[in-house]
Every structure is written in structure tokens, then in C-alpha cells.
Amino acid sequence: MENLQLFFGDEKLLIKEEIEKIKTAMVPAHLEAVNFIGLDGKTVSEDEIINAVITVPMLQDKKLVVVYDARFFESTKSEKDGQESDKKDDFAKFLQKVPPYTQLIFTCEKVDKRKKIFKLIQKEGIVREFPAPSLKEKALWVQKRAELYGKKMDLSAAYFMAQYTRDLYQTDMELKKVTAFAGEKQTIQQNEIQSIFSKSLENNIFDLMDYMGMKKPALAIAILNDLLLQGEKGIVILFMISKHIMDLISVKSLQNADYQEIKQKLNLHPFVLKKAIEQAKNFSQEELRQALKWCQQLDLDIKRGKIDDRKGIELFITRIATK
């Protein structure tokens, strides 16, 4: 049954775009209101799905029903104990006879492959996984996506963006910012991306470094946890900490110079420079250089899988803030 499908995986953007392709091919724009039905799989009932599926299309032969974020494929305690309800069994039986005029697609992020409904679609329909790409695949995707927005991106820039973003949804949003920022420039390079990426995290990193300098590791770790909860990647946070420490080292090396001279030599934004001058007073030059070495080593350890990013950064903060 090609008209019964399950799309699952980490990359929601790819799932969304695949559904858009199917919808464009199947349902004319002027009939979308009647022949395309999108349902919230977290709240919709089985009966509501059945009603949507059996309703005949209008003014054409086919219709599309998509159940987004379908909860039916997730593990639940009762189902792990084998106590699936009769209602769910009836729903599974219905799925074996989806009418030929309806294309039914379920989407979800995670699936329990032991569940009856998953096994049924795997046997009777089509199951497609959209996993997170490898770093190389993601970088090549970034380059191709940049072309869609009328730009070229060199490979080092594409790898940087691939490494310092989460899923392709976030990567795409950041890429839109980068291409807009590039203006008429046709080729985007890594140094241009770094300046854009740093803006969203900068204020939080300032606060985190303030608490480290004040020897208050618990407050610094609280900021780290907030950033991680907001979806920032640990390796990006570490990159920003490293970058800020390098600024502090530069400021510290010019501590005997006046403000205008420091500003001219370092070419930092006035706000950034002001914060860096204040924070540099909390550390010796040796402490900063040692912290940078630890950052660089931690970066390698995280990338090699030797330590979890959250745990590694927490240990780093504690090490600096209690020194």
C-alpha cells in the first residue's frame, strides 16, 4: 500500500519538505483547502483520523491526510506491558484498508519498532527514516542550500556551519541570516559566519564569564544549563567561551595602554571591549592562557567522544571558578 506511509527521524525539515513535494504533486493549490488535511498527532483521536481518511476528495480523484507528530508510535508504559486497547487494535485494522483515493502519512521523531502499528505499516505500507546526516553530508547540504538562496559557500564555511548548528531546521534558519547579511557578495567565507553566530550568545557568555571571574561556579553553570535548555549546542558554547578568553588575553596584554589605543588595535565593538576590560581584571594572564589550553583540549575531547559536552563544560567552569 503506497498510500500508507510513516516518515520518522531527527530531521523534521526534510520530512516537511518531502510532504510539501507530495502535496504539490497531488493537490492543486486551489483545492488544498478541501483535499489536504493536516492533523495534530499529539491530540487527534483515532476516530477523527478515520473520518478524515474516509471522506471522499472533492473535484479530483485524490486527497492527502498528514498526521503530524503522531503519538501512536511512541513507547508508553501500558504498551510496554503488552496492554494495547481494543480501540488501537481496531485502528490498526482500519489502516490495512485505507481507501485508494486517500494518501495517509504519519510523521514522528522517535518510534518504538516493537509496536503493532509500526510493524503493520512496515509490512503493509512504506516506512521512511530521515536520520541526522553525517558532518560531511550536512556540510554538502549547506553548500547546496546556499545555492538555493543565490549564494556560494566555501567548504570550510559550510563545515563550520554544519558543526555549530543542531538539526537542519536551525541550520537553514542560520543560513538565511548569513545569506541576507552577505548582501550582494556572492561567496560566503568562514570568518563572515563566525561574526554572525557569535551575536546570539554573546551576552550570556559575558554573564557566564562574569560569574567565573567572581568565583561563583554555580551561577555560571546555571547559565550554561539555560543555554543548553534553549537548544544551544555545547560545542558552540565552548567555542564562544574560547573566543571570549582570547579577547581577554588580548586586552590583558594591552593593560598599560589607554582605551583608544586598545580599541584601535583590537577592533572590538565598544560594548564588547568595555566588558572585556572589566572581566580581564578578574584573571591573570597565566590563568587566561591556561584556560584557553583547557578549552582547546576539551574541544578535542568532546569531538572525539571522550566526554559529554555538558559535563565537560561544567568541569571546566568549576576548574576556572575555584582556582
Task: Describe the structure in your own words.
The chain has helices spanning 12-26, 32-35, 46-54, 77-80, 86-95, 116-124, 135-148, 155-163, 168-182, 190-213, 217-229, 234-253, 259-266, 270-280, 285-303, 309-321, and strands at 4-8, 36-40, 63-68, 102-108, 126-129, 152-153, 187-188. By secondary structure, the protein is of the alpha/beta class. The protein folds into three domains: 4-129, 3-Layer(aba) Sandwich (Rossmann fold), CATH 3.40.50.300; 135-188, Helicase, Ruva Protein, domain 3, CATH 1.10.8.60; 194-321, Zinc Finger, Delta Prime, domain 3. The strands form two sheets. Strands 2-3-4-1-5 form a five-stranded parallel sheet, sandwiched between helices. The relative contact order is 0.09.
If strands are numbered along the chain, what order do they take across the biggest sheet?
Answer: 2-3-4-1-5
**What is the first-to-last residue Cα distance?**
65 Å
Largest sheet entry: 5 strands, parallel
Molecular shape? elongated
Counted up, domains total 3
The Cα radius of gyration reads 26 Å
β-strand number: 7
CATH class descriptor name of the largest domain: Mainly Alpha
Q: What is the helix/strand order?
A: EHHEHEHHEHEHEHHEHHHHHHH
